[in-house]
Design a protein that fits this description.
about 70% helix, Amino acid/polyamine transporter I, 15 helices, about 450 residues, two-stranded antiparallel ribbon, about 5% strand, two-stranded antiparallel sheet
Amino acid sequence: MAVENNLELAKSSCDEDDDTSIRTGTIWSCIAHIITAVIGAGVLSLAWSTAQLGWIAGPVSLLCFAVVTYISSYLLSDCYRSPDPVTGKRNCSYIDAVRLNLGRKHAWFCGSLQYSSFYGTGIAYVITTSNSLRAIQRSNCYHKEGHQVPCEYGNTLYMMIFGVVQIVMSLIPDFHNMAWLSVVAALMSFSYASIGMALGFAKVIENGEIKGSIRGVPAENLAQKLWLAFQGLGDVAFAYPYSIILLEIQDTLKSPPAENQTMKKASMSAIFITTFFYLCCGCFGYAAFGNDTPGNIISGFGFYEPYWIVDFANACVVLHLIGGYQMYSQPFFAFFEKWISEKFPDSGFVNKFYALELPLFPSFKLNLFRLCFRTAYVISTCGIAIVFPYFNEVLGVLGALNFWPLAIYLPVEMYFVQKKIGAWTRKWIVLQTFSLVCLLVTMVALIGSVEGLISAKLS
């Protein structure tokens, strides 16, 4: 209902409150935001995904999703301003762009998916962080006691610790104050992706052979093989697209130059960088372990030694996901808090801010409703993660749900409206075919991922 009521607003307030001093982002901060959003939980599962798909389908799927992601970002970046992509009215969020171009019903559909995706990604990041923290403890145990010792530890405590950290980090007011956090998170993502790639390459050299096969990991029967392959596609789908947050990132950019031009350049650079790391991590990981490739190449203990490098890589994962969690949570916070503020304009609890100064920290304004809501939000994501701690299965479901509607269908439809492309023209047929193919991929990925999640829960 919050989404539906907010969509009743006649127009976005972006241009009514266009303080250009707030929008100071550059191509470099944009690349940092994108890398923080893209290289995260997904990169750790790509070796496993490649193992399910095999030596041909695995790398090809990674390249295809990279191309699809760039096409999606190219189409969507032109929707930041409407009707003209350079001089038109600003759309500071995905919902604003959809509402203006496609109408209220599409905006309701977009909002429901987008904000559930934000929430689901937060849950996935809680799971991933706890796995990495647990892996650090297990790595030290293996180093001291030997690799045959069980060294089993639970996830719950680590999820609670991460939740406490996120409650503190949620005091960051909004997306415009997160550039420093994205830079730190992006550096961490480069660190652990490089370590995973290097360890995989070293393992291949140590083995003296390239493991794996064209068909990938064998299964008991054809149906089981299809489930695993479909789930692998879902994991790849989760790893790439950032359309659900693209316009929010674009709204941080200063102009001139035009925001869409900066975003296109940043997208090209960021996708090239991430694809390089994805291919290296996925292929080297599969080449190193073959049919025994773990679901998470860093915390799944394909590598035991040197233990301190494994510890450092997992620590980098944790630091990155602290920023990544906020990257996907801040738009949700902004949306809901704006809606509540407009619904209760006279409430002091909702709208009153208190100046707060702490030693060694800059002064900031505290709002009681913001504190309570964001705390409850973090607690809820941690609670669900404790109940469903299934890493690869959760990633696959999220990727499949997000991919076609938010990364393909809505950008294509808005592009038709923006460029006034008529039905059955050449460009219309090409883009509709592109959308249909992506829909089929989404359907099979969702089927496989849901089956995997159910099987993991029952086992």
